[in-house]
Amino acid sequence: MTITSILRTLHSIQNQSLPQAFSSYNQLDISQITSQILVCSEPVSTGKLPSIWYKNSLNELIKYLNFNHPNKWLIVNLQQEPSQYEDCQVFGNVVHHPFPDHQPPPFVMFVKIVKTIHRYLSEDGDRIVLIHCKAGKGRSGTVVCGYLMNYYHIGADEANRYYSAKRMRWGMTGVSIHSQQRYLGYFEQWTKMGKLEQIKVMGNAVAGKKMMKVYGIRVIDRSFLELDPKDLRVSVWDYYDTRGEMRLVWKAEGGYQGEQQQQQQQAARVERCGVTEGGPKNVVYYRFKQPLYTNCDVRIVLGNRNARWGLGLVDHCGFWFHGYFEKNKEKTKTKTSTTESSGNTVFSIAHRETDGYCGSGIRPGLQLFERVEVVYYCK
After folding, report:
1. How many angstroms from the chain centroid is the CA of residue 9?
2. Is 250 helix (H, G, I), strand (E, B) or coil?
3. Burial degree of 232 (CB within 10 A; 0-12, 13-18, 19+)
4. Torsions phi, psi of 110, nearest 5?
5. How many CA atoms lie within 13 A of 306 on its CB side?
6. Closest-CA residue to 174 (of 210, 131, 111)
7. According to DSSP H, which parts of 18-137 are helical?
8. Which residues, including other chains, have CB under 8 Å from residue 46's CB and lie 6 or more apart?
9. What CA–CA distance (Å, rounded) separates 46 from 58?
10. Which residues form the Phosphatase tensin-type domain (predicted)?
C-alpha cells in the first residue's frame, strides 16, 4: 500500500467506497446509490498538488467509468468553488449546477438538477450519472435524495436514511446540515403538489419575480447574558434569481445599518422589549421601515461580539428557509410558522435548528438567543 492510497483511505474514512474492478493500487472514494447513480468526492487532475495525494484521481476515475460504463456516463458537478479539472479532460461529459458549500440549492435549481438527471438516465437504461461536490456528502446527498423522492416516491427522511446507508459509514448521516434537511422537506412538499401549483412555484421564480416581502426579524433571548442590540450582527441574504450565487440584501452591525441600506430606505427601527411575565426575557426586533423584497430562498445570519464579557465572537449561526413552503406548511402537521392578523406569516426557528460553523452543529462560544422569528408576506 502506497502513501497515496493511505491518504485517500483516511480522507474518505466516513464514506463507503466501491471495490475497484480494474485497479488494485488506487482506491477511489465512490459509492453506488442506485443502479444508475454514483456519488464521489471531488476528482483532481494530475499535477494538482497536494490534492492529488489524497483526493480522487481524475485519470483513475475516467478509467473506472470507461471500463464499467463505456460511452454512457455523465458527471454532475455541484461545486461553486473552482473545480480541479477542466471540462475537456472529461471529454465534455459534465454539466455544472453550482451552489455554495454547506448550503441548500435555490429551490428552482434543485428541481432543475433532478429533472436533468432523470432526462439523461431515462433515454438509455444503461446510462449512469456520477454526482460530486467537494466531499460528496451534503450537496450531492441533497440532490440524490430529491431524485429518490421524485422518482422512487419515498419521503425525505427515508431518502436520507437510504442515501446515508449507501454513502456513509455506519452511524453517520449523509445530509446532516439543518438547512439542507429543511429543503428536503420542501422538496417532499413539492412532490405532493398538483401540477398547476408546481408550475406556479417554478414559473414565478424563473421569471425573476420577488415573491417575498420581509417586514421584520425578532431575536428572542432567554439567556443570562442579556442580549444587547449594539452587540448583535444580523444579515439577510437570498439567491440571485435561480442561480446559486448569494446576494446580500441587508445587514446590521451593532444595531445600526450601513449607509448604503439607509440610502435605499431599507434601514430598520430597532426595538427592545423588556422582561414579560412567563414570556421571553429579551426581544430585539428589527422592524424594517420599508419591506425587503427577496426571492423565496432566504438566509438569515446572526452573530454577536460581546466585549463586556471578553469572549470575542461568542455566537454565530445562520439558516435558510423558503417562504412559500413555510407559508403552506400551515396546512400540514409539520407547522413551523403562523399567520398574523395582518396576513403576514411568521417563520420561527430555534437556535438548535440553525446551522453552525461550516453547516455543522458547532457554534463558537455561548448561546445568546432562544429562537428567531421572521415576519414576511409571500404571494
Report:
1. 27
2. strand
3. buried
4. -55, -50
5. 18
6. 131
7. 51-54, 58-68, 107-122
8. 52, 57, 58, 59
9. 7
10. 19-194
CA count, 13 A, side-chain hemisphere, 172: 14
Query: What whole-number distance in Å separates Cα of residue 83 and Cα of residue 276?
Result: 53
Is there a contact between 351 and 317 (Cβ–Cβ < 8 Å)? Answer: yes
For the chain, the C-alpha Rg in angstroms (whole number) is 23
Q: Which three cell numbers stand for residue 125?
A: 437504461
Alpha-carbon distance values, 290 to 35, 119, 287 (Å): 52, 43, 9
Dihedral Cα 45, 46, 47, 49, nearest 10 deg: 70
Report field, pTM of the whole predicted structure over 0.85: yes
Q: What is the pLDDT along the chain (379 residues), one digit of tens a residue?
A: 454 454 445 444 455 555 434 443 357 889 999 999 999 999 998 655 555 556 788 999 999 999 999 999 999 999 999 998 999 999 999 999 999 999 999 999 999 999 999 999 999 999 999 999 999 999 999 999 999 999 999 999 999 999 999 999 888 999 999 999 999 999 999 999 988 888 877 766 665 567 899 999 999 986 656 667 777 889 999 998 777 899 999 998 765 554 444 444 456 677 766 544 455 568 889 999 999 999 999 999 998 765 554 555 567 899 999 999 999 885 554 556 666 657 899 999 999 999 987 777 777 667 878 899 999 998 7
Instruction: Find out whether 15 and 168 touch, Cβ atoms under 8 Å.
Output: yes
At position 57, the amino acid (one-letter code) is S
Q: Which of these, 286, 221, 237, lies nearest to 257 by C-alpha position?
A: 286
Residue 213 amino acid letter: K
